[in-house]
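Trying the structure run again after the queue cleared.
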Amino acid sequence: MEVGSPYIECLTSYLIRLSEVHKVYPSSLISYIVAPVLDKEFLINSVKRGGNRFYDGARTINAFEQNAIDMVTVLEDLTGVRHLDQLTLMGLKEVIPSRYLLKKQLSWCPACYEEQMNNEESYYNPLLWHLEVVKVCLKHKCRLEIHCPSCNKNLPILYRKSQNGYCVYCNTWLGIEKGNNQDSHNLELNYKITLIAEQFINHKEEISVSGNRQQIIKNLNYLIETYEQGNLQRFAKNLNLAKTTLWDWCKGKVLPPLPRIFEICSLFDISPVYFYTQDISTNKNLITLNVETLLRNRGTREIRFDCTKALSILSEYASNSERIISMTELAKLIGYPKRTLYEHFPDLCKIISAKNKEFIKRRTQQAYEDNCLIIHNCVEILGKHGVYPSRRKIEEIAHKPGLLKDKKLREYLNTLVQNEFSNDRR
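Done. Tokens:
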């Protein structure tokens, strides 16, 4: 579907449609047709035991790893259809890393599904939707959905009974729009990034042929040298990036993730095809720093949320009575906004917060009692020497300047003094 366009179908979607044409579920097609031909021990064992290992890693079928190569080979042999590799990112392994490349769950545009239905087309999922960096649909100017409108669950990329356009859990039609889901705060930037992603998908074959690691390194170093006079720190700041990470990219130790390349392309108004395949220094007049994008990028770049990592750390702090920390400090430690953590794990966050408040309450009470004891001892010492227990005298003896700035401690001192004078009068 949509071969030769930014909305070309992905391989997992094609696999699901192939199952539908033969009136079987994807699980049957994979178990009885694909698995025996692939002859992969892990897949055969998964089929026999009913595990989810194959489905959990199914997103990489759309990428460039060995399972993508194997699936393309098998499906081409079984169907006689050629060039199924175009439904994946095969050929791009030398220029893009797998990190931050593909989403772990399905995302979709309800309006696109409705459009497919109204045009009486087969329902399918574009490869574009699977890119981690793509959050919006440019056709319909809306955010992509990530939760079923009925059961509110995240949906897997591929599962035993997957049907394009329907929830795998409750079978609800996903063309149902939730209403206005636009977030003006980040939408404009997402449009620009998605436009760059469309260009990337549309020309990925050209990039796979003409792109290379050395060109990426050369172009990156040229931009740093030209616009920040070689200052890695300043350029890294423009991307909200650690200087050491940028250094690794510039030295060719690791490849920049695709979302970061798209940010750079957005920042300098460069086509991703141009960045990956051409020496940008030869047309330096065409390269300009987009200041508006730079300012917006600093304030609105979305942090990629690692749900598993956050859950693991929060669970540890919530269950361990000895690990006390405020949610503000823990959010900094994990690396996500506190509000984001509360949105995803409200109960765990409340437990951690309550533990911290109780700890602070106990610590405050203990400090108050300790200071009261110090004041009491000082009053006794001064009383034995016939000296009035003034605030200054008590703080001198206790070696605690500012001790009696606390209102409650001053009230305690006043009570002690009054009782002392009352006893003297008797």
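DSSP finds 20 helices and two strands in the chain. Worth checking whether this holds up in the mutant runs.
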